[in-house]
Design goal:
The protein is α+β, with helices and mostly antiparallel strands. The protein has five helices and nine strands; from the N terminus they run βααβαβββαβαβββ. Strands 2-1-8-9 form a four-stranded antiparallel beta sheet. Strands 4-5-6 form a three-stranded antiparallel beta sheet.
Length: about 170
């Protein structure tokens, strides 16, 4: 059996901002918590199949820090998962995606930024858990200062391959 290697481009949430998010993730989704820190996915693996071009795009530009606005928690995937979805247009997020994916002729989609609190692959939300999450105070606006290229081998924790600071 071959273990799959996956790569993604992500925006990690700085630890001091992520305290509440990480506490909730650790309590209700310890498996996902152990695999990766809280983040917003910028580009999924099927969008970066031309990986060298993506790396070139990231390395050649000085990206500006971006803010992403978030709304209240919502359930998804038939109520099993919980996320903090985007709020508003978040044009800087979409512009950053375009810049990272410039010259790529792969599958691209409109990706809505969000923070996953409970991944339905390895956790299941209940009405009681969701009520507890709704009572939490999560950040409404987060500044992202780094673009991270990450990789997961099989079911191992994600590893950072490369980070690019923004200006």
């Amino acid at each position: 059996m071959t273990r799959q290697t996956r790569k993604q481009i992500t925006l990690f949430i700085e630890p001091e901002i992520a305290r509440t998010i990480e506490r909730v993730r650790q309590k209700y989704n310890p498996v996902q918590y152990a695999l990766i820190d809280s983040h917003v996915t910028l580009c999924r693996e099927d969008e970066i199949v031309q990986f060298e071009q993506v790396l070139t795009n990231i390395r050649k530009q000085r990206f500006k820090s971006i803010f992403i606005d978030f709304g209240p928690v919502v359930r998804f995937s038939e109520g099993k998962g919980v996320m903090i979805p985007e709020s508003g247009e978040n044009e800087s997020f979409h512009a950053l995606r375009q810049a990272v994916l410039a010259g790529i002729d792969a599958c691209t989609r409109l990706l809505a930024p969000h923070i996953t609190l409970m991944h339905p692959r390895n956790a299941t939300c209940t009405d009681e858990i969701f009520a507890d999450m709704e009572s939490e105070i999560f950040p409404k606006r987060i500044l992202f200062r780094k673009i991270s290229v990450i990789e997961q081998y099989g079911t191992d924790p994600w590893q950072i391959l490369y980070e690019s600071d923004t200006v």
